[in-house]
Amino acid sequence: MAQPRVLVIGGGLAGLSATMRLAELGVQVDLVSLVPVKRSHSVCAQGGINSVNSLTRQQGDNEWKHFDDTVYGGDFLQHQPPVKEMADWGPRIVDLMDRLGVPFNRTPEGFRDQRRFGGTLFKRTAFAGATTGQQLLYSLDEQVRRWEVEGKVKKWEFWDFLEPVLDDAGRCRGAICQDLVTMQFRAFPADAVIIATGGCGLLFGRSTMSMVCNGSAVSRAYRAGAWYGNGEFIQVHPTAIPGADKLRLMSESARGEGGRVWVPKTPHDPRDPRDIPESERSYFLEERYPKYGNLVPRDIATREIFDICTNEGLSVEKDRLCVYLDLTHVPRETLDRKLGGILEIYEKFQGVDPRVVPMKIFPAVHYSMGGLWVDYEKSSTGGLVEGSPRNQQTNIPGLYAIGECDYQYHGANRLGANSLLSCIFSGLFCAPGVIASCDSGGKKAAEESSRLFDSGLRREEERHRALLVRTAGDENPYDLHQQLGNLMTRVATVVRRNDQLAAAYAEVCSLEERWRRCAVSDSGNWTNQNVVFTKSLGDMFPLAKLVLKGALQRDECRGAHYKPDFAMPGIHATDPVEKRREAEAWCDRFEANTRRWLKSTVAACGPGGEPEISYQDVDTSLTPPRPRLYGLVGGEEIEDVWKERQNAATVGGNAHKGPAAFAGATG
Amino acid sequence: MIRSVESTGHHDGGQPSQSPADHGGNGHSAPQRFVRVRILRQDAPGEESYWERFEIPYVANMNVISILQQVAAQAKSRDGRRVAPVAWDCNCLEEVCGSCTMLINGRTRMACSALVDRLLDESADEIELRPMSKFPVVRDLVVDRGRLFHSLERVKAWVPVDDSYDHGPGPRISPENQEDAYPLATCISCGCCLEACPQFTKIELVRREDESADDFEARRTAAFDAGFVGAHAISQAMLFNGHPTGKMIADERLTALTAQGGIQMCGNAQNCVAVCPKSIPLTRSIARAGRAATVWAIRKIFDR
Amino acid sequence: MTANDPSQSFLARHQFLIYRLFSLAGLMPVGAFLVVHLLTNASVLAGPGVFQSRVDMIHSLGPLLVPIEWAFIFLPMLFHAVVGFVIIANGLPNVGSYSYVGNVRYTLQRATGMIAFVFIIWHITQLHWLGTPFGGGRFDPHHATSSAAVVLRPLLITILYAVGILSTVFHFSNGLWTLGITWGLWTSPGAMRRANWISIMVGVLLGGAGLGALGGMRSVDVEQAKVIETRMEDVKRMLEGGQSPLESSPSHGQAPAVHTSETAAPVVPTSGSVPRTPSGG
């Protein structure tokens, strides 16, 4: 029998860790990437990677708590078994990356140093300077290069994935890809195809994501029949540096070190910010949240900044939305010592010294929690069955998705420093299952008749040719992309309203119509970036539609998905009895909402390219959903009521499997 | 140069992304400033290169990437001809992926962190963009930097672990060691050090008609192997020779560094360290490699 | 530039060794010789007698001087020059685009290397007996100061010598600094800075010695020098037991009578009547 052959699309953390593990298991891997894999978007991750470690363990931490923080942070929208498995693997993964040579910061005794990140009480996050993602990616890139020298891996860099090839039984047998230099097409027979192409930030025009994060590979798999899960969940980071080309992240630590967010009370005040007196400034976060001030939770900070600019029209600049993030009152020495690195980024890209002049920042799209729907096989202990071909497999047999482009780990909201873990975990963990799937697929793809691939090749060649001859159209693809991005940013990021979403859906449809009249300004067949961009723009519309439709239909607030019309306000009564009654009502409503909306959104591409949305129950067998009350007025009262109800349920025998069952599983 | 002209009613290119407000609409708007750029273009390998000039609406804080985005969007040269968009490489746009290296006003640097305001201070008349000169041009500003990655293979820039299974944590490492290694590990493989190095010269081979793809690949690899390995790879070799596990194959790396095209090719111009966008102490790595090679060569003579 | 020959020639296989020997040769023996040479020449500032006695010391090696010269000076220098030209040919100076100090030095190192090469060839031809067939070889070890002074006196020659000496000195002292990096003597930026000061000091010292010698030669009174030299030669002969200086000299007995002449005959001998002696110091 021929050796199995696997095609990996995308060379970020997930794609590289899968490639490394597969090669190690003796599989021949073809690795296709839009850019040299060392230049993948994973390099942009700064903060760190979470796992339980010997230090936190002795402070009472364990894998269960990491799991629990993750599902609580994700507002319980993710299936729990994969998250549990990931939390269990955390320590092993960080150990492995340590062995691979990642220069993690060290304690004086030479152990890995750890820092605390949002959403947890423990110092779980290992980090390598301010470029942890880069360092993790490089160490995997090096291992894959080693396998490349060994001949187990063949890299196809500057290649674009166009479509999966399915046989008559609907099983994935390989893919059609295109060389972005010579523009030649090529069929890649493979016994399994793994998509690891990251997020889709380009749907929103500019984001903190890299230029390859256009979602095209995912969109092409989706159009070929793969389902897309939780598309409406998009994480927006509160503080980014607006740029004409990209929005660059400004770490939360700037506020942690005393940074104050403000806008001039006069709209678009033309004065130098340093000349605006205190009385004419609005420190709106401090005013609205006296308790937390500038350090309100991320989603609240994001919403408030967005609100003050769009609804109150108090943006600092007239033709660009932004607010001031002011550090000028902090002593220069403190800034250099604690924030040196990130302030240099601002200075480098803005040409302004943030120690002297307040920074201009605005929220930016940062991460897609949603992605290709993938399966898993649950083990008897609540985790996953290692080696099961179902793990990470899409609804198309033989087609897998890992990393940011799967929907599985972060629910409605991702915790900081969990993305690097989920990428490496899903890559490493899926490998044995992928091999099992290769072996179960009957004859090898290499033995498959060429007819199967020829029709795919012909289809893609035709699609390409049709774009090339469109030189006489009246639409400019770059302008269309900008319009799509503006639209998506306006209606589908921080605050969502049904009327806007519905209108935007219609507008996306019309943009897609206009896209069909796009003129390609380069009709050549050599490194034609113009036609490649136009093609990927066309692939953005199906994703944009499923994001909008998912958001439109989900009438609730959950994690990153915020609809003010469906928000559950806190309780304001002062009378104890009334307070109690309101808390009961709040809990009733929460339970009703959970029954109605604690479901994965699953989008399938309909015949006309329109998303067909269905809902699947979420596996919450390990820990039951509970309200997130952080910062909510009257939260203590609600929490009391909630606990009473939980206790009653436990006594009644309806308890979910709790930590006790879990502890046995991890031992 | 930035020139101010009255807007003539409409202009190509989009409005600022988050603002529906368009200043250019009614002919009574504020003067629109423009940035002039000239770009050295080449349609394909082996073709003649030529200059093309563009004029881009000025936006505050713009960088060379946003210029190129506008060039692609308007696809029109300064004299109004419709031209194919300029091809260029980029990805992260925050100087950490290493894609967008080019010669900007004659100097190698990253297009993303090259701010237009500063470039205009350098040459007020026009910003000049050229592809890197030490790598074969693929098209326009896109070059083939395969040799750069091949050098990493030559020096075995990796930690030779047994496998990726769980064997507990890695070796203990002192903070001093980590602080020493970390800067070297931040190399983004942009190729600036190679572009500026007077000792690193271009290797461009053309596939012969009677040559198979594999034969051509082998010939190219052999040519790369004979050429200077480059500052970035020397530095990576030193990074891994300083790692407790990595140094287990230190001899193999030194063998590579003292083979043809190894550290001896360094001419100590020290441009590498001067142009490195990540301020990596490359000359320190080179000197350390020199020392290691000295000790190693002597040891080889006397331990034989 | 196209690729090097991919087939592994001898030179390719031993490139590292060759380049390291090249580097070493620049220091030892070529550089060391330069130091001795310039300091010896500078002794002329203390008077023609001092310089003459230094020259005599060197020439006391007798017949060994020729093989020593070839083994420790000419051949290493030639090797250094040949490899140096290969290195220069393979480099692509770009000081126009990158005018950093290090790059300027890189470029100067190559320029001064080439100047030094031309200068040394010229210098040898002009003064060393090897240059006799080409109308040179005008240095007379028995009249070290006077014969050299006469040759160096024309202003143009002095200027060219100054350029040659300074180029050679720059090449050596800058080479000293890069050699320390090549061999890994100074590795950190701080150490490189400190080593740089040392190399600058060496350069200033040697440059001073070289220019001093040149100035010394120019300011010497040729007639007086000649008198001193002749007197010294007489003394030497006496001490050696009345032997003829011709027999004790490493030359081949073809030296003309000009050595013993007390007259103020022209010091510049005609071609073919030159004492075939090695260089002065």
User: Largest sheet of chain A, order of strands side by side?
Assistant: 13-12-17-16-14-15
Cα-to-Cα separation, first versus last residue of chain A: 39 Å
Question: Number of helical segments of chain A?
Answer: 18
**Through-space gap between termini of chain C:** 43 Å
* Main beta sheet of chain A: 6 strands, antiparallel
Summed up, what is this model?
The complex is a heterotrimer of chains A (667), B (304) and C (281). Chain A has 667 residues and is α+β, with helices and mostly antiparallel strands. Chain A is built from 18 helices and 21 strands.
Q: What do these coordinates show?
A:
The complex is a heterotrimer of chains A (667), B (304) and C (281). By secondary structure, chain A is an alpha+beta fold. Chain A has helices spanning 13-24, 54-58, 63-73, 80-99, 132-150, 216-223, 253-256, 284-288, 298-310, 332-350, 419-440, 450-468, 477-491, 498-515, 529-553, 576-597, 635-651, 659-666; strands spanning 5-9, 28-33, 49-50, 114-115, 125-126, 153-157, 159-166, 172-179, 185-189, 192-195, 228-229, 234-241, 248-249, 260-264, 281-282, 323-326, 359-368, 371-372, 399-401, 599-605, 611-617. Helices cover 34% and strands 13% of the residues of chain B. Chain B has helices spanning 64-74, 116-122, 146-154, 175-185, 192-196, 213-226, 231-241, 250-257, 271-275, 282-303, and strands at residues 2-5, 32-42, 49-57, 101-104, 107-110, 127-130, 137-139, 142-143. In chain B, α3 packs parallel to α7, α7 (231-241) packs antiparallel against α8 (250-257) and α7 (231-241) packs across α10. Chain B is globular and about 75 Å long. Chain B starts with a strand and ends with a helix. In chain C, 67% of the residues lie in helices and 0% in strands. Chain C has helices spanning 10-13, 15-42, 48-59, 65-90, 101-127, 144-152, 155-182, 189-219, 222-239, 245-248. The longest helix of chain C is centred in the last third of the chain and has 31 residues, at 189-219. The model of chain C is unreliable at 1-6 and 245-281 (pLDDT under 50). The chains are: A alpha+beta (667), B alpha+beta (304), C mainly alpha (281). The interface between A and B is large, with 84 and 82 residues.
Name the features:
heterotrimer, A: 667 residues, alpha+beta, FAD/NAD(P)-binding domain, 5-stranded parallel beta sheet, 18 helices, B: 304 residues, Ubiquitin-like (UB roll), Fumarate Reductase Iron-sulfur Protein, Chain B, domain 2, 2 domains, 6-stranded mixed beta sheet, two-stranded antiparallel ribbon
